[in-house]
């Protein structure tokens, strides 16, 4: 009986120690706010970060609504939120760099390890039939394949939707590569949905398609597209100083440079929770993986939380590589 009582007492002490350990761990990391941006990839990563910080590092992590400009401004001026998981930093590079210089912010690592990707694309099934279509010269040579939906005498190039920043760069490159002389006409798809819809329709009927698109996106996760090689390499200064500027009078040909996509944190979070910050700095996705995740989200009408569980289940080698073994074990047990 005494032995049984000792065992019960020891078990009770173990439970008490466990219950006391959690608040201590939480206190070490403290309260953390994470921007849940209003697009799928950012929301997915925000949910992943919250789950890992809570269950792996004992943080009291909370998701709050966010968007690029207001989130970045709030982080600089108010120190909140602590983490912006997906920040396309060129949009407000000067302000972020100033925040870093003033020890308010940190570049914590690349959310997209290859950067965001832009380009002119054609369907993979078309390149299998005509391999030269992987180059711009091949596209021009076979321009008559890409029949305009409203004018069969011309060829269609699907541009970035009107009003988007990429409309400027795509139109400049269209002119620089003299695609009009090859018989192409710019087609405004009207919206992002219109542009993706035109690709889906082409794939449904295995028809030719040529135009601008970007990654990571569900479309490039669903459909095998080939990025056309302009034969120019990347001239980053030309791209920044001319290709992206509305008043550029003489654009030259350049491939799109990768768009930097970082995770930004406040300096206070990085200093207060160095182990959690280290995870944030290591966490990153390839465009191929993110394309596939976004395609799954769209097909299943899933939100960021649903996609988070799918990611943990489907990509264990990816997320476990970001974490020390002891932390990965805690996350696995929480799942």
From TrEMBL:
InterPro entries assigned to the protein according to its UniProt record, in alphabetical order: ABC_Gly_betaine_transp_sub-bd
Segment forming the signal sequence: 1-26
Name of protein: ABC transporter substrate-binding protein
Keywords, ordered alphabetically: Signal
GO terms of molecular function: transmembrane transporter activity
Coiled coil: none
GO cellular component, one term: ATP-binding cassette (ABC) transporter complex
SUPFAM superfamilies xref list: Periplasmic binding protein-like II (SSF53850)
Keyword Signal on entry: yes
Organism: Vibrio agarilyticus
Domain annotation ABC-type glycine betaine transport system substrate-binding: ranges: 31-311
């Amino acid at each position: 009986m005494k032995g049984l009582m000792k065992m019960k007492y020891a078990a009770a002490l173990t439970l008490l120690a466990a219950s006391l350990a959690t608040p201590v761990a939480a206190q070490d990391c403290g309260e953390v706010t994470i921007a849940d941006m209003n697009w799928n990839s950012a929301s997915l990563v925000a949910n992943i970060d919250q789950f890992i910080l809570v269950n792996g590092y004992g943080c009291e992590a909370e998701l709050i609504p966010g968007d690029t400009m207001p989130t970045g401004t709030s982080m600089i001026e108010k120190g909140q939120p602590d983490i912006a998981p997906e920040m396309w930093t060129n949009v407000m590079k000067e302000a972020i760099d100033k925040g870093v210089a003033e020890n308010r912010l940190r570049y914590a690592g690349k959310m997209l390890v290859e950067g965001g990707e832009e380009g002119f694309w054609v369907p993979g099934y078309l390149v299998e039939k005509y391999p030269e279509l992987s180059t711009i010269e091949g596209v021009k040579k076979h321009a008559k394949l890409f029949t305009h939906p409203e004018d069969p005498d011309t060829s269609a190039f699907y541009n970035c939707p009107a009003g988007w920043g990429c409309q400027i760069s795509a139109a400049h490159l269209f002119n620089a590569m003299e695609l009009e002389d090859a018989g192409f006409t710019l087609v405004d798809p009207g919206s992002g949905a219109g542009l993706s819809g035109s690709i889906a329709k082409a794939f449904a009927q295995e028809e030719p398609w040529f135009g601008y698109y970007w990654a990571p996106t569900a479309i490039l996760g669903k459909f095998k597209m080939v990025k056309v090689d302009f034969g120019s390499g990347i001239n980053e200064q030309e791209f920044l100083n001319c290709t992206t500027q509305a008043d550029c009078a003489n654009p030259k040909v350049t491939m799109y440079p990768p768009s930097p996509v970082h995770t930004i944190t406040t300096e206070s979070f990085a200093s207060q929770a160095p182990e959690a910050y280290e995870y944030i700095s290591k966490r990153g996705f390839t465009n191929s993986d993110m394309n596939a995740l976004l395609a799954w989200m769209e097909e299943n009408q899933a939100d960021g939380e649903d996609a988070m569980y799918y990611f943990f289940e489907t990509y264990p080698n990816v997320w476990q590589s970001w974490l020390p073994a002891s932390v990965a074990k805690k996350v696995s047990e929480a799942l």
